[in-house]
Amino acid sequence: MLAAALRDGTAHRRTTFEIFARRLPDGRRYGVVAGTARFVDALAQFTFDDEALSLLSDFCDRETLAYLADYRFSGDVDGYGEGELYFPGSPVLSVHGTFGECVVLETLALSIFNHDSAIASAAARMVSAAEGRALIEMGSRRTHEQAAVAAARAAYLAGFTASSNLEAQRVHGVPAVGTSAHAFTLLYTAPEGRPNEKAAFKAQVEALGADTTLLVDTYDITAGVANAVEVAGPELGAVRIDSGDLGVLARQVRDQLDRLGAHRTRIVVSGDLDEFGIAALRAEPVDIFGVGTSLVTGSGAPTAGMVYKLVEVDGMPVEKRSSHKESHGGRKQATRLAKTTGTVVEEVVHRYGEPPAGQRGLAERPLTEPLVRGGEPVGDLSLETARERVRAGLKSLPWHGLALSRGEPAIPTRMVARAT
Amino acid sequence: MLAAALRDGTAHRRTTFEIFARRLPDGRRYGVVAGTARFVDALAQFTFDDEALSLLSDFCDRETLAYLADYRFSGDVDGYGEGELYFPGSPVLSVHGTFGECVVLETLALSIFNHDSAIASAAARMVSAAEGRALIEMGSRRTHEQAAVAAARAAYLAGFTASSNLEAQRVHGVPAVGTSAHAFTLLYTAPEGRPNEKAAFKAQVEALGADTTLLVDTYDITAGVANAVEVAGPELGAVRIDSGDLGVLARQVRDQLDRLGAHRTRIVVSGDLDEFGIAALRAEPVDIFGVGTSLVTGSGAPTAGMVYKLVEVDGMPVEKRSSHKESHGGRKQATRLAKTTGTVVEEVVHRYGEPPAGQRGLAERPLTEPLVRGGEPVGDLSLETARERVRAGLKSLPWHGLALSRGEPAIPTRMVARAT
């Protein structure tokens, strides 16, 4: 595409590409925008070195290679603040520049937004289901080794407390926490093959202090809890249960801990939890949820289904006309309308620079912000700000918007017709 | 875990960790082992630099940091050849070394195997459904930007023809191919806003020659095909259809191409295809399938569900005993039994060095191979060999094993009891 468009000069036409989702996955009621800061960061690094150009010389003519050798995105990007909720048709990102500089960004932009938004959207449902209890992301081993780092970030963005991924702490500042695995307890098997859980607990407490989390379900949970409190004392930080009927076990373990005087020892549960499993445990004495597989796989929706579409060429709206996949041409902005109570009622997508007339009694909040100007990042791209946007977004939804069941988007999206 | 085990010396006990899947996902009948070569490669690079150690100093004591500063895996790894089929309980990988050197590999090993095997397992079903027709992987934009590269490799390993991911060519040698997007056709919109598909086709043919693939469904498919052949002539390489009822459209387009004399112009279809969609198009004149989302998300099973379990300590089998998650202790090997026709009948998992007695009339093929000795890679880790293993594996399945419907594993796995 680039080679052909460079040849006849059309690569230099001014364009706008837009990222949006035609629908929310799986009967979801809202999505969470994630990946914005990662994309802006990646944009600055998106250049072609000699090795890349040498590979591309099999595919591209000399003019195209010369163009890529000098490539550096110098256009503008607008979009939703990271952490904002989105709905079908929300113009989550708009990229403005020449066709040449925008078209080569498609895969990068979509990969980041489709992955990160899928994870954050699932994570927000878990956060909402946990009603204030702590959630730890521990799914690294269930997804690609680099995707795991981005998944830990997306989970934290959506309201998780921490992650077991140390690289996510290094790269993104996500708080890192960890627990021990069954292998650690099994390691302390005595020479004659006899289990020796107490030896494992003792070693862990000696290394990390009593305020650690002991995994109590390697052999027998009741014996495990007794061993744990015997070794660490009633100041034991937490016990983790990773198998069985978590609700029943949490109650039994709470009773046992209390009987042993370990009133402040918390209970961590893990093991194939998703938002439904978390909601089902709300009435149980669980303090912390550990979530793995369902988090990093988007709990049934591993990709957000966002697309990157050319919507404007030299100021003219353009759109695909063939069956079933209509896009709405023209550069756009969005506004969210809310009642005076703060509850949102509608998303309005309108042509850039042409905000629709306000509605009596409804507050309007513009959603589209400048993210990049002349190739340089602008605005607040911090993870803490994004976390705050998710918190505020979840609070702003009408009650049915937070339901975990399959349903319609929490609020409708109104596409305001072009003035032209 | 490492800090505690280093403190009292247990970190130096000899251990075996095993990777296996307790079950196949989603009623699948077989899985494809993928990630082996990536893991062996990553193993050599798994060390801790000063920056990593500095971060870890918040978590680890001095002894642990010193251990990690010198860390280099020096043990042995055995496993299934990459591309072998696997079933529940198959010991896909065995890692032998001290507890310290093995335990820190868990996340790396599982991330690679769970991701790559999920993609390869889905891809193999698509390859089998396509019955010899070409498949192009084009899902990069639907998954994390680095996962996309591994997904392209896993798809190729399982029998895909090529990928649109150039990085996968650079890193893994996967053949790269591409087509144009709707944005390219829309770019050629004439100044007054009039669509100008012919101008786009002309630019593409001038840049890439007539043996290119023109995307014909931006506006009207019949007009698109007419424009394509008018511009490129009957030597046009291919047309791509990306929307609508692909079967009906493929027939119409084939008729139209033949009427226009473009008998050798091939038809590429894409658009939300999975193995079922591919199978449904088997009777249609489709030459090439382009597969995106469903491939990179494992077609409903985005992770292979493999686990990394400690099975042996200082020669003693160890296993977890709590509810519902039993593992089978002891270092193991596996053998696959087949009829003289080559059709496989059973997977036998047995204790290391104790092969079970042969069965009359059945051929035995050992599955466990040395992959790493003393930290150094051994054996054939090439992608072409892995592709050949998938081809041979699919051919060896009983007929019901290739059915796309939900079912039981194609062959049973027999766990031979320990001799001890």
TrEMBL record, chains A, B:
Pathway: Cofactor biosynthesis; NAD(+) biosynthesis; nicotinate D-ribonucleotide from nicotinate: step 1/1. GO terms for molecular function: glycosyltransferase activity; nicotinate phosphoribosyltransferase activity. Transiently phosphorylated on a His residue during the reaction cycle. Phosphorylation strongly increases the affinity for substrates and increases the rate of nicotinate D-ribonucleotide production. Dephosphorylation regenerates the low-affinity form of the enzyme, leading to product release. Residues 1-114 form the Nicotinate phosphoribosyltransferase N-terminal domain. Keywords: Glycosyltransferase, Ligase, Phosphoprotein, Pyridine nucleotide biosynthesis, Transferase. Pfam families: NAPRTase_N (PF17767). Its EC number is 6.3.4.21. GO terms for biological process: NAD+ biosynthetic process via the salvage pathway. Residues 321-340, 352-379 are annotated as: Disordered. Transmembrane segments: none annotated. The keyword Transport does not apply. GO terms for cellular component: cytosol. Signal peptide: none annotated. It catalyses: 5-phospho-alpha-D-ribose 1-diphosphate + nicotinate + ATP + H2O = nicotinate beta-D-ribonucleotide + ADP + phosphate + diphosphate. Catalyzes the first step in the biosynthesis of NAD from nicotinic acid, the ATP-dependent synthesis of beta-nicotinate D-ribonucleotide from nicotinate and 5-phospho-D-ribose 1-phosphate. PANTHER family: NICOTINATE PHOSPHORIBOSYLTRANSFERASE, NICOTINATE PHOSPHORIBOSYLTRANSFERASE PNCB1. Belongs to the NAPRTase family. This is Nicotinate phosphoribosyltransferase. It comes from Mycolicibacterium pulveris (Mycobacterium pulveris). The gene is pncB.
